[in-house]
Amino acid sequence: MTSLLEKQINILVVDDEESIVEFIKMGLEAEGFTVHTAFDGNEAISLARELNPHIVILDIMLPGINGYEVCSEIKRSIKTSIIMLTARDDIDDRVKGLNLGADDYMVKPFSFKELLARINARLRNSFPDLTNIISVGDFNIDDGAHEISFHGNHLELTPTEYNLLKYLLINNGLVLSKSTILEKVWGFDFSGEVNIVEVYIRYLRDKIGDKEHNIIRTVRGVGYKVVI
To answer: pTM of the predicted model, to two decimals?
Structure first.
């Protein structure tokens, strides 16, 4: 399990279905998070401004003010990461939410394990100061020293290898496409071949002894994911 809780992390859960709110609240509190809840848009905006949560889990279909409006208003007011929930797997809904400032998107029904992975990914990306060293399974990322250790042993990594491994680790459990990896690790202006990702994945597997590809897994036709 990833350890991020050296400082208290506040999460606001917004949904008009009490059963969903309680399900998420119980699971997150068991993981050590402080969880606040709201059941409509106005209450969500008010609590977000008061509590300044690190993460907002926000349903789209809310009474009164819908989730899109809530997302836009919260993003104008505070720095937070918003994960939107919806019962409809519609690309237009997803694009609209992301354009309004949402950081991630999940379709109901969802697994708590995936939700937790997405929360941790958002925390690592948006609030790296929550901890000096991020632990992901048997990996320790010391971003200040630009070093990663595995089973307590320092890995000799080039800057690109470090950035790639860190990006894979902080998104532990999530499938990442080659194009996404290229954009995040090599940058928008990279003009080389896409297969550079495959080459560097091979380098990393060699350095961590992942001969069976049990840690850095290939998702055929999509990309890669780390499973710790």
So the answer is: 0.60
Which pairs from 39-44 meet CB under 8 Å and 24+ separation?
A: 39/14, 39/15, 40/16, 40/64, 40/65, 41/14, 41/65, 41/66, 41/67, 41/69, 41/70, 43/14, 44/12, 44/14, 44/70, 44/74
Q: Average pLDDT over the chain, rounded to whole?
A: 88
Helical H segments across the chain, by residue range: 18-30, 41-51, 67-77, 91-99, 112-126, 159-170, 178-181, 196-208
From the list 157, 137, 141, the residue with the least C-alpha distance to 149 is 141
Could you give the domains of the chain? 10-129 (3.40.50.2300), 133-226 (1.10.10.10)
Would you give the distance in Å from CA 55 to the centre of its chain?
10
